[in-house]
Amino acid sequence: MRDFLSRTRSRLRHAVFGATGESDDTVVTDGGTATGEAGGVVDRLNERFGEDFTESAPFWLPPFLLVGLFVYGAIAWNFVISLTDYEGFVGPDYSDLDFEMYVRAANDSGVIDATVNTFLLVVAFTTVALAVGLVLAILIDRNIRFENTFRTIYLLPMSLSFVVTAQFWLWMYNYNNGVVNIALGTVGIGPISWIGNSSLVLWAVVFALVWQFSGYTMVVYLAGLRAIPTEHYEAARVDGASTLKMYWRVIIPQLKGSTISAAIVLMVFALKAFDFLYSLVSGYRPPNGADILATKMVREAYSTNNWAYASAIAIILFLMALSIIGPYLYYEYKQGNL
Amino acid sequence: MTDGVADRIRDDLAGVDGYRVALYAAIVGMTVFFLTPIESGLVTAFKTNPGGVSSTLPFAPPPPRFFTLEKWQTALAALGRGMVNSALYAVPATVISALLGSFAAYGLTQADWRARYKAPVLAMLVAGIFIPYQAVLVPLSQFWGAMPLAELLTPLWLLGVPQSYVGLVELTITHVAYGIPICMVLFRSYYRNVSEEMIEAARLDGATFRRVYRRIVFPISTPMFAVVLIYQFTQIWNDLLFALILVSTESSPAAPVVLILAGLGESMEGQDFALRMAGAFIAALPTLIVYIMFGEEFAEGVAT
Questions:
Q1: Taking residues A197-218, what's their average pLDDT?
Q2: Distance between CA atoms of A141 and A143, rounded to whole angstroms?
Q3: Which of A71, A156, A171 comes nearest B58 by C-beta?
Q4: What stretch of H or E contains B271?
Q5: Rounded to an integer, what distance in angstroms lies between the CA atom of residue B101 and that of residue B181?
Q6: Could you give the CA distance from residue B90 to residue B98 in angstroms, rounded to a whole number?
Q7: B94 Cα to chain A: minimum distance (Å)
Q8: Which residues of chain B are within 8 Å of residue A148 when distances are taken between CB atoms?
Q9: What value does the mean pLDDT of chain A take?
């Protein structure tokens, strides 16, 4: 049995690494049954990382390299470009690197506004979408009829593209004929120019995004609620807690895991809100009052060819994302999930 | 013996209390909130513009004199080519990224190499989900600009495929690369719950790492493949940013549907909302169908 195992392993190794031609000097360390062709590199890797490493490498290494190249390679390259003065159509000049673009960004009120708006959008959208999703999950979890139908309806907007939802909400917010202004009109408010008013547009965008994604939060919370043993509900009942108190004191504190995983995904969607804003203002125009770093960056790069400046803005956005990812990865690592 | 009608009604009402009424009112209220934008868009798409759109309530169905199918025809004519283009890259990119995600998850879950080395690899893949795409756009443009992809694909152009379709190949590869992290994470959460005894037994019987995947892990992944394929297809079909950067103009023969939709119904005279709404529905149709059909499975898969 052992012999057979190591023979198949060395055949696999040969198939994977044999063709590289680097395995000539054979040092057999694994029982002596290896055929001799597969040695050297593989054995040294085995010694250092364990045999499972070399066996599993064909599975995870190609996708990892693809991600490494396209994500991390690109970010590194982007950083280098941000240090150049690259503008226009001739490639970047890598001989003269400095932080000039970052200094320019720090003094650009457009970038500062976009940073503040990005922060506000992420925080407001995530908080409200979490709250709405939690309420929806609790409602759905109360033994109602047609549960599946309601769940599908709440989740439906998530299937839509940002471009599509932007069309819907542009029409909802329409000054003369939009549902929002007509509904407000019946109670004597408005009409209000939601998209045209620079102090309202960001909140109008947040509202639309909450509409699109709170169904997702609901699904995550629903799974969390269903994982809580019924005894916890019963115990609270026996103690005489009201329904509201039971949720607030007993149930919601147990949903921490759901909250974290939903919040992370919502923040990712918020950072992608570029698509929504691009469609809302139809093109590269600045969404006045709702310009976020993502829209500012794409405009600088693809509308005015300020490539180096756009790269610097991209790095600022990346650092903002990193401030969310970093603690999250650390939390996952501590939980034993990595 | 038999209950009188009055008794039965009393019994029915006994189950109904103020609390249940409020609960259902809240649920129906939220349903209205989620459906209104969609419903309002749907009825508007059937209205004449100018005319019906401005003189009827936005959520009211069109009266016969304002009813028209013209906007749907116009939208379909404008978006049809884009629908085909989107499918041409969304389908292969979805399948390839799901497969690669599954491979990566298997290689990083079932193999027990040292955590000290595995954690950074996993961390880099997981972090890949959260990278704002703006952080890679400029290098991505540079990369595809420098790649002689058009020359590599010469046989395709000789077969009569328009050369601008090179953008669709770029989109496929790009979406595969950026889709791997989320696919990997979804599959990994699934593979961690796969019975270890079964795999141990197969290993002791002499099955190679690769064989275990082909004979055991891949076949039992079917439910997760459904979830990942739905999610990835939605993401790739709906994405505007990469389409905008890699294909750039909506007039290109290779323009994906979202790119054409983003500029639909715009003119000097103002916005044609009826046309926009019809276009929005046509562009959203594939993902809407997928969600209505598989929403249940998706909801369960995402929650794990």
A1: 93
A2: 6
A3: A171
A4: strand B270-271
A5: 7
A6: 12
A7: 14
A8: 296
A9: 84
Q: A160-170 as b/e, with b when 16 or more CB fall inside 10 Å?
A: bbbbbbbbbbb
Total residue count of chain A as it appears in this document: 338
- Chain A and chain B share a number of CB contacts under 8 A equal to 322
* pLDDT score recorded for residue A292: 93
Tokens coding B301: 């898969």
Rounded Cα distance, B154 and B176, in Å: 22
Q: What is the DSSP letter of A69?
A: I
Do A338 and B108 form a contact (C-beta atoms < 8 A)? no
- B14 burial via Cβ count (<10 Å: 0-12, 13-18, 19+): exposed
Sign of CA dihedral B213, B216, B217, B219: positive
Beta bridge partners of B67: B47
ipTM score here?
0.87
Residues 65-94 (B) with a CB less than 8 A from some CB of A: none
- DSSP secondary structure code for residue B47 in this structure: B
Q: 10 Å Cβ neighbour count for B231?
A: 20
In this structure, which amino acid lies at residue B87? A
Q: Give chain B's mean pLDDT.
A: 86
Q: If residue A186 lies in a helix (H) or strand (E), which one and from where to where?
A: helix A179-186
Tally the C-alpha atoms within 13 A of residue A257's C-alpha that lie toward its C-beta: 12
Residue B260 confidence (pLDDT) above 60? yes
pLDDT digits (tens, 9 = 90+) for A117-144: 999 999 999 999 999 999 999 999 988 8
What's the pTM?
Answer: 0.85
* Cross-chain CB nearest to A159 (options B129, B248, B287): B287
Under DSSP, the state recorded for A21 is: S
Residue in this structure with the two tokens 């939802």, named with its chain if needed: A165
Q: What is the pLDDT of residues B117-144, one digit of tens each?
A: 888 899 999 999 889 999 999 999 989 9
HEC string for B137-163: HHHHHHHHHHCCHHHHCHHHHHCCCCH
Kindly report the length of chain B.
Answer: 304
Question: In terms of Cα–Cα distance, which of A252, A254, A253, A264 is closest to A332?
Answer: A264
Which helix (H) or strand (E) segment is B267 a member of? strand B266-267
Q: Is B262 close to A282, i.e. CB distance below 8 A?
A: yes
